[in-house]
Amino acid sequence: MDPSKSASAPPQEYGDEKSSMGQVPPPAYFDNPHPGYPHPGAAYPPQMQQGFGPPPPYGGAGYGQPYPAGQQQYPAQPATVTVQPTVYVTRGPLTEPVNDYLCYSIFTMLCCCLPLGIAALIYSIIAREANHTGDRNAADRSSRMARTLNHVALGLGIGSFVLLIVYIVVVAAFTS
Q1: CA–CA distance from 90 to each of 40, 133, 134, 136 (Å)?
Q2: CA separation for the pair 120, 127 (Å, rounded)
Q3: Closest listed residue to residue 123, CA positions, set 151, 144, 92
Q4: Dihedral, CA atoms, 121, 125, 131, 136, nearest 10 degrees?
Q5: How far is CA 139 from the centre of its chain?
Q6: Contact at 8 Å (CB) between 101 and 147?
Q7: Rounded CA gap, 151 and 50, in Å?
Q8: Which of 6, 66, 79, 119 ranks highest by number of CB atoms within 10 Å?
Q9: Higher confidence at residue 170 or residue 45?
Q10: What is the model's pTM?
């Protein structure tokens, strides 16, 4: 087998250099691409005065001396810092709690309509917790919802009980 005929062999005109694949080579590298900035080794312009001199040496003759003329010294700072204590404002239980209908919810859950009784029980518990935390609006809202669910559950329970009695009477009348 001839190695020059293999599928993975490079072509004969292949050299050691990589081809550019039709791309333009990148531009040459310049140390300073921005005009106006000094090149390495060039002299920098002198520094401009900014209106104040160098700081006094630490521990030297100028240390602890008053500020130079024309500059104001900061006002004296107090030596102690007073921190105010954090105040947490919490609400206590309501003085006149809203009715939570908890017993009514338990009755309708066990005796009338289980799904609506469970929902009424949940709202009753939310109303009780809102009474305990002092949130009158949430307690009112949850109490009204629990009462409504309890009334509906009781109505469904009584209606289904009446229908059951009618069904039993009708079936007993036709069988005899």
Answers
A1: 69, 9, 9, 14
A2: 10
A3: 144
A4: -60
A5: 28
A6: yes
A7: 84
A8: 119
A9: 170
A10: 0.50
| 124 Cβ neighbours under 8 A, 6+ residues apart | 100, 101, 102, 104, 105, 142, 143, 146
Q: Which residue has the higher pLDDT, 26 or 14?
A: 26
pLDDT digits (tens, 9 = 90+) for 49-66: 566 666 666 655 545 555
Closest by Cα among 94, 93, 95, 153 to 123: 153
Amino acid type, 51: G
The structure tokens listed for 29 are: 């590298």
* Separation between Cα atoms, residue 38 and residue 32, nearest integer Å: 8
Q: How far apart are the first and last CA of the chain?
A: 107
Q: Which helix (H) or strand (E) holds 52?
A: none
Pick from 166, 173, 167, 98: which is nearest to 131 by CA?
98
